[in-house]
Amino acid sequence: MQQTEANHNPSSRYLGGAFAFLFDDKGRFLLLGERPDTRKYMWDLPGGTLTDEEPPVEALHREVFEETGLRLRLLSPLCWLKWDRHRSGAPILVAFYVAHVVAPDDVRLSEEHTEYRWVTMEEFEYERLAVSAEEEIVRECFALYRQCQCTDR
Question: Short name of one Pfam family for this protein (predicted)?
Fold first, then answer.
């Protein structure tokens, strides 16, 4: 999977989105349980839709804080994907990022989600968790996170 620069706003032909693989100090990433009445998947990543002219990184910080009350430290962009999954029916161009949570013990969920869970790659694979990101992206994310951890020290 090719890593691309993810700092510009996507084309106006698409809605824009930004989501984080948000890791804690134990190398686990955060999953948010979707409400049953709006559920497409059992679990979702923190993030959401960009507002008009909002850069993806700015949207990511805003969405993560709105959904979880958490602050993040961005480690790296991961990839861009085009989804046909937005509830409006419009295609959405999504930027995925790898990030580290600043204070993982203080999760405050918004009304959009019912629960949260920190999971390892092993738990993700073993339980076959249904998440909004494809498994290949999750694997790439863990590899990039490990690489960022090695160069961070």
Answer: NUDIX
What is the radius of gyration, based on Cα positions, of the chain? 14
Predicted TM-score (pTM) of this structure = 0.75
Residue 125 has pLDDT above 80, yes or no: no
pLDDT at 66: 94
Strands 113-119 and 15-23: unpaired
The pLDDT, as a whole number, for residue 132 is 57
Q: Which of 101, 37, 99 is nearest to 69 (CA)?
A: 101
DSSP 86: -
The CATH class for the domain spanning 15-152 reads alpha beta
User: In the structure encoding, which two tokens stand for residue 109, read together?
Assistant: 């969920």
The answer to whether the CB of 82 falls within 8 A of the CB of 92 is yes
Beta-bridge mates of residue 48 = 18
pLDDT digits (tens, 9 = 90+) for 23-35: 999 989 899 887 7
SS3 assignment, position 114: strand
Task: Break the chain into its structural domains and give their ranges.
Answer: 15-152
d(CA 66, CA 46): 9
